[in-house]
Amino acid sequence: MNVPEDNWRIRRTVVFATLFFCAFNITWIMLDGTDTALNQQLGLGLIAAATATIGSYVFGACWDDMNKRK
Fold it and tell me: What is the pLDDT of residues 16-50, one digit of tens each?
């Protein structure tokens, strides 16, 4: 059985790019954005996206490790 090439490098790149995007936009909203309901919701959405990205990354790593042990 052929084992596909390990693609964790690509996954890490996507995760880090997403986290950088979220952090950059949160910082921009905090420093340059006005205190509006829209900016508050955008900030909460970006924090949720970063949290979901980290959670998915950790869950995916655990799932991959579990499958490799079988």
Answer: 999 999 999 999 999 998 899 999 999 999 999 99
How many Cα atoms are found within 13 Å in the side-chain-facing hemisphere of 54?
9
50: its two tokens:
């970063």
Angle at 38 between CA 36 and CA 44, to 5 degrees: 105
CA distance 9 to 49: 21
CB neighbour list of residue 64: distance below 8 Å, 6 or more residues apart: 8
Instruction: Label residue 64 left, alpha or beta by phi (over 0 means left) and psi (-120 to 50 means alpha).
Output: alpha
Determine contact, residues 26/43, Cβ cutoff 8 Å.
yes
Closest CA to 51 of 10, 23, 9: 23
Helix (H, G, I), strand (E, B) or coil at 55: helix
